[in-house]
Amino acid sequence: MEAMFSAFLALVCALIFTATVPFANFTRGKADNLNAATSLAQKTSESIRGGGYANSSAQRLADDGKVQSSTAVSISGFSFGTAGETALEFTTVDAANVDSPAAVLPNGRGYIKSEQVSADLRRVTVIIAWQEKSVWKSVRLATLIANL
After folding, report:
1. What is the domain extent for residue 60?
2. Mind listing the pLDDT tens digit for each residue in 102-133?
3. Are 37 and 99 in contact (CB under 8 A)?
4. How many domains are there within the chain?
């Protein structure tokens, strides 16, 4: 009787283990994607901030190779963009200190918005987006750069 009870407990433990491991791997993968996106957004933001106010305009970002083009693209068609929102794309740009979103995340995309807030103040927003099971996820990180 004790042997059967021990076998039953071992079977229950094995079933619980096999039922939870795939879910644990899936949630770990989601957390890894979020960490990679947040890190990439922070690196990109710091890279632009380090260049200063003069180098944070759309044309200067393109000239410095931080974005693919100085022409803004619409991101309103994605679930992470608002109506009429445009930004500069850097999905495939791979610099020495900042990785490419396409290389780091599944179907990764990267966008930079540079907006003039006042005469000597610019807001730079970095948007990193990726797909998890056909659902778009995104991270936004904004910073202000002053003309000092």
Report:
1. 2-146
2. 888 999 999 999 899 998 899 999 999 999 88
3. no
4. 1
